[in-house]
Predict the structure.
Amino acid sequence: MPVSNRYPSEECDCYMSLAIVHSRARVGLHAPPVTVEVHLSPGLPGLSIVGLPEAAVRESKDRVRSALINAHFEFPARRITINLAPADLPKDGGRYDLAIALGILAASGQIPAETLQGKEFYGELALSGALRPVMGLLPAVLAGSREGRALFVPRENAIEASLPSQAEVFAAGHLLEVCGHLAGGQVLSPCVRQPFPALPVHHLDLQDVKAQHQAKRALEIAAAGGHSLLMVGPPGTGKTMLASRLPSILPPLSEDEALEVAALRSVSGQDVTGFIHQWQVRPFRNPHHTASGVALVGGGSQPKPGEISLAHGGVLFLDELPEFDRKVLEVLREPLESGEIMISRAAQQVCFPARFQLVAAMNPCPCGYAGDPSGRCHCTPEQINRYRMKLSGPLLDRIDMHITVPALAPGALRSETARNESSQSVQQRVVAARAQQVSRQQKANCVLQGRDIETHCALSAEHYQVLERAVQKLNLSVRAYHRILRVARTIADLEQSDVINLPHLTEALSYRPSFNLHTSAR
């Protein structure tokens, strides 16, 4: 039952005419605070909403009015002004319905206004007063819990909102339940975070890949240091199999990383509750080569994350790399360096994290069999060059490791599985190497820059000469020079070595020659 269904007369001053309720907007992964100010004043009855509301917010006045009446509250017959501050921040969606309704009730004296302090409210109202879920709630929960506020959310958002361990969340299914709690009647119980399941066993195991020992070694190095990888080889050699098994050897997500991944899923409109069953598993995104630039980087009038942001903390696999539109691939250059993507619109700029691990696969020529001993490739040099020129040099230069995945002899498929390591055993070495990197430099080797490379990837004078001669012979860039050092540092970490030795350096150099794809067909 409502706290009060008797509205005082206009001559009575026993209620406040101004109420303040707290909520938050959604701007990318950020949740800036929004103060809902509700003022009742004499005049012709009406309700106006100011503060840059979008259409869905302006329509909330009709939803709120019907919800209050159907919940047996009195809708004030006065001039109601609702200000959503700050005024220059666009507001969209129905997430403010509950806050607006509570502000009207508090300003009209139907609920105690002081009970709204230290709390934030979210939820769209049905005409009956029932609470409906809202999209992109997790960033608001994270921000509100950091400020020590209790959060009231729709019951359908309860699992998502209780993911942060420090959050105090109350879930309700109806406006009356929230009002009863605020009035001290039927008190809601705080949501308790459900225990996360143990790290699931991967169905895709590295042990399934026969032979291809060099490729599996490169995959282990890429996983240990977070390096990007390009695999070149004819069809059917296991490139897709290798890429799909990379998450099984990556270190599990930490709680902070998992919350960031879940927040990206939340703001993109995906189901977050299903993510709980893979809480520590790194995401694996595999967009089709027909994907547009917006699908890859994100966008829209209300910007949402694209594939590169949904792969944040995990793997972005681009199969048949030259089949992607060249303009689409070029958008990868900035996030590969910065780890974030900025989407600019007329009204706002939104920044999404995009620290993904790029894994790409391609054929050596249009038919896929260039260099095959059988001689079945009939592509001309011009066709091969035209195919490879779809990939720009600057993009290829940003990929740390380049390997050739050769065709397998039929006898290799009958090799005993005892020779193949499982993902679990490889993951143990990867986790140990990544732990050494975090202990030494507080980050993975793939993001080392400038002085960090000079400090943590230092070589002896003799080894520097070897590297410089190789860079000159292979005609590599300064960017490639630094990436070789970072890969060599990872190889040393896999062996738990404090210094980069010559075998580590030479192995790192072996992952660069196939970079020169544009001239190898001439």
Summary: Confidence is low (pLDDT under 50) at residues 1-15. Residues 231 and 403 are 5 Å apart (CA to CA). Residues 206-515 form a domain with the Rossmann fold fold (CATH 3.40.50.300). The first strand starts at residue 18 and ends at 24.
